[in-house]
Amino acid sequence: MMKIAVASEGKMTAGHFGHCENFNIYDVEGKTIVKEDSVPNPGHKPGFLPNYLHQLGVNVIISGGMGGGAIDIFNERGIEVIVGAAGEAKANVLAYLEGNLVSTGSICHEHQHAGECGNH
User: Fold this and answer.
1) Between 54 and which of 32, 77, 95, 100 could a Cys-Cys bridge form, CB atoms 3.0 to 4.6 Å apart?
2) Is 92 helix (H, G, I), strand (E, B) or coil?
3) Matching InterPro entries, A to Z (predicted)?
4) Which residues contact 18 (CB under 8 A, 6 or more apart)?
């Protein structure tokens, strides 16, 4: 079982992680979504959301853009970060499961990391 969260505005992938309206959370077995849930964004405080999603058992986070600080915390927690996504949240999850959704490394703010996620 794997949990994938998508930073969202309703059913659509949000452009910025911290300021999204809600997180659509998908429980996945193999390449099949077995459960869908949505939780409201509990608030944007530095470092809070990555730990919140970690406590929910999330393994992968998909978003449009994300600050470098959040990406670092997700990496420390062993959560895979996919940024640069757009369009319908569920479609992005299905694309990810098929291996067709690749992170563009689209980092918000002044934190410019040199490469792909995890290669610091």
Assistant:
1) 77
2) helix
3) Di-Nase_FeMo-co_biosynth (IPR003731), DiNase_FeMo-co_biosyn_sf (IPR036105), MTH1175_dom (IPR033913)
4) 44, 49, 66, 67, 70
Domains of the chain (ranges; CATH) run: 2-19+43-101 (3.30.420.130)
**Cβ–Cβ < 8 Å for 90, 26:** yes
Q: Please give the model's pTM, rounded to 2 decimal places.
A: 0.87
Distance separating alpha carbons of residues 50 and 101, to the nearest angstrom: 21
Describe the crossing of helices 68-76 and 48-55 by its angle, rounded to 10 degrees. Answer: 30
Mapped onto helix, strand or coil, the DSSP state of residue 53 is helix
Nearest alpha carbon to residue 53 among 9, 94, 103, 3: 3
